[in-house]
Amino acid sequence: MTDERWLAIGLDLRLLTTGEGGRRTPVRLDIPFQYRPNWGLVGMPDREQVGAPVFCASTVEVTPGSSARAVIIPLFEGSLPQWRSVRVGDELRMYEGSRICGLGAVQWVEPARLPLPPDDDARFRVWTQQG
Known about the structure:
- This protein is mainly beta.
- It has a single domain (3-129), classed as Translation factors (Elongation Factor Tu (Ef-tu), domain 3, Beta Barrel).
- Helix content is 12%, strand content 41%.
- It contains two helices and nine strands.
- The strands form two sheets. The protein has a seven-stranded antiparallel beta sheet.
- It is globular.
């Protein structure tokens, strides 16, 4: 039995350059849910954050100043009401600690099932490779 209360969010993600205050090193995105940044949602005060790990991305590694398509899936049930306010076109701030390291432009928001079934896994991965 799958649980459909979760969300998946497709982003066009851009890491800030080091000069913009971002990371100095690349981010590896090749292992599902391993990279776990926090996100500032529209309407949240600066530095307020909620977590959502990266499930998959269009590239294995993203360097500061470069971009990738990514799918994030919030995994903390208590933050789901906040995530449900996210809309296409929103810009999410990607945090590591108190530092903004990237920006994510929301391309889509869809219900997701956990554990993630193979058809969702494949569909999300295909989306990251398009465009």
